[in-house]
Amino acid sequence: MLGGSAFDVLHIPFGTPPASRCHLPSSTTSPRYAKEKLQGRPSSVGEFNHREQFQIIKDLQSNVSGSVHLAKATGGVDVVVLKRRKVPELGKAKDMLNEYEVMKKLNHPNIIRCHGYFWDFPSQSLYIVLEYANRGDLHSELQSRRRLGKHFGDEEVWDILAQVLLGLRHIHDRGIVHRDIKSMNLFLTDEGDGNCS
């Protein structure tokens, strides 16, 4: 899975302190605000429709525009990544759902799967529910192997490269450009696949 603010999508199966809370003006807490941000789309898509359906296991990242959490669906065994957005990505459209709209077009073993989204009315935030890559990102794996002196072998490097290229070809075949390909946006799972996000 590839990560980053541009759009998270590539996945390679193998394997910040929270920001200050933003206080939203009262005009942002109305149902009308949600309707404007969702631009006429439903308040949820997929099997999840509210924050209480998850138990947060760990905070992974946080900044002024949102946060990323490792979470477990209550009553289930699925561990997922909840990506919370308080403000839209940069771009002409200022569309909070742009990332979801792009990811729903993608279905490939080397691309992180998007399970849907939901609007959380109490926090006035959009949550995107993503597949969890249990081995973390390629950057962390490279750093860990460097410290241990256990570098990737040639065969592993070619395998990872092939998986990344397959994911990128799938993305490009759909007219999508990633804009932020780097080792921190390539995720690993135990299944041996590399995923872009």
From TrEMBL:
The keyword Iron-sulfur is annotated on this UniProt entry: no
Catalytic reactions on record: L-seryl-[protein] + ATP = O-phospho-L-seryl-[protein] + ADP + H(+); L-threonyl-[protein] + ATP = O-phospho-L-threonyl-[protein] + ADP + H(+)
InterPro entries: Kinase-like_dom_sf, NEK_Ser/Thr_kinase_NIMA, Prot_kinase_dom, Ser/Thr_kinase_AS
Keyword S-adenosyl-L-methionine: no
EC number assigned by the record: 2.7.11.1
EC category name: transferase
Domain Protein kinase residue range list: 54-197
Keywords: ATP-binding, Kinase, Nucleotide-binding, Serine/threonine-protein kinase, Transferase
Name of the protein in its database record: non-specific serine/threonine protein kinase
Lineage: Eukaryota, Sar, Alveolata, Dinophyceae, Suessiales
